[in-house]
Amino acid sequence: MSGAALASQQPHRRPGIDAFAVVMPAHNEDQHIDRALRAVQRAADELQAVRPDVSVRVIVVLDSCTDGSAGITARYVSADPRFTRLEVQLRSAGASRAAGVRAAVLGPRRRTPGQRSRPLPWPGRTWLANTDADSQVPPNWLVRQLEFAEAGADAVLGSVEPDPVGMDPELLRRWLDRHPFEENHPHIYGANFGVRASAYLAAGGFSQLESHEDRTLVQSLRGLAFTVLATDSMRVLTSGRTHARAPHGFGTYLRTLGRQRPPAATGN
Description:
The chain has 268 residues and is of the alpha/beta class. Helix content is 35%, strand content 17%. Strands 3-2-1-4-8-6-9 form a 7-stranded mixed sheet, sandwiched between helices. A 3-stranded mixed sheet has the order 5-10-7. Strand 1, helix 2 and strand 2 form a beta-alpha-beta unit. The radius of gyration is 18 Å and the shape is globular.
């Protein structure tokens, strides 16, 4: 659905967007996080090239990391003032996302020495863009969300594509058969999900669940009659690994899909 088509369906105009907050939880992702951060940085650059009036902040939530993820993130924080890191001990994707949003919308509970102070944006004019540390967003990721938001969307569900590198081709084929790339798709992915901060707060935010925090939030948004749309126009490349970090997350789904037997061949 185009932004113009969406706007024609909205009885009430939403306020414009002044600020983006990108939230990226990470737990021991030093094999992927550099590419993930570089992709977000590129998307932020593209947004601010066309809309320099819109600010962008990237909050990387390092959850119980014991690998090199913190060091990689620190390089981006020191080189780019748009990046901030938040270290937590939660071991939960939902709780980590919620902590990142809380820092973006409400501010950190306490400031560390030398931490930059910045004014907090109004939630009605703030857009929360969520992705994962094992994923790479496309260059148009933030621009496209801004277009939908300013056309009246309260939340945008993007699509994902598993990275074929190192992935079993048969598993990838099965996934693609079940997840055609199309507009108005029925899927919800934490790696590609945007929501207006005011709608997020009204719907109760991300739950403290270890997984499916994105589905729970979307159900609440729809129950409150917020405008939620799904699109394939800003597809995110995500890891095709099957050793899952979340007990019921994307990797677990891929592992389960890989264990399914193909249908028996039938004769003519």
